[in-house]
Input
Amino acid sequence: MISKCLFPAAGYGTRFLPATKAMPKEMLPILTKPLIQYGVEEAMDAGCDIMSIITGRGKRAITDHFDISYELEHQIKGSSKEALLSDIRKIIDKCTFTYTRQNEMKGSGRRPICKGRVLVGEQDPFAVILADDLCVNPDGEGVLRQMIDLCNKYRCCIVAIMEVPTEEVHKYGVIEGKRIEVGVYMVSNMVEKPDNDKAPSNLVVIGRYILTPDIFGVIEQTEPGKNGELQITDALCEQAKNGMVIAYKFKGKRFDCGSVDGFVEATNYFYALEKGE
Output
């Protein structure tokens, strides 16, 4: 059972300036809940109860959100608004939150994952959720739950993938691999943001991972890739050479809430869902 989930949340969120000048992008709300809370709830549903968050300067709102606000609770106690805090109270009561700060932005690999080493430990596999990628599966298990079930079967790193049009592959890490069952691929190579005409497939990695603890050693030995940054996919590519990475075409829907278009799409989707449309 995987109990720990790591949330890299130190980025600047420049695509949402000026809103993110003082507000962490992970705290941008989809309806009445911030992005990162959706991720935490997905991790909880998958059986995780230790949430490890990599923050940075100006990110105190994240730690405050997952804490008791005595003044606020006192003001609304006994009113109809008290019920609005029921979900976050359940999270606070059930989960343990650990934090560390990242002081330099150099891709999604070396800095945030290695910074999280002290939080998730080096003994057991752990999950990684990028809160920018908001995933939902209203007809069944959440994406991370699906991946953990697969990890219990294959006992190796798992990445979530989806199909995109060929003209969009340059935005993502792209896998090359062999299908071993429906929706499941043994990865042989991964390319970070390739040119559209050089991509090995149109199967791209999204912000859901199950990583084994040996990933830390691999990251330390991996050279930075495109633009001098080390992405998670760069280290996973090294593991894939040894047949240690599975890609899973998940069931559900993913919204790229790191972009304005995806953020608006997610807001409209959840609004319609809430209204029963």
The first strand starts at residue 4 and ends at 8. The domain at 4-274 is CATH 3.90.550.10 (Spore Coat Polysaccharide Biosynthesis Protein SpsA; Chain A). The chain has one domain: 4-274. The chain has a mean pLDDT of 89.
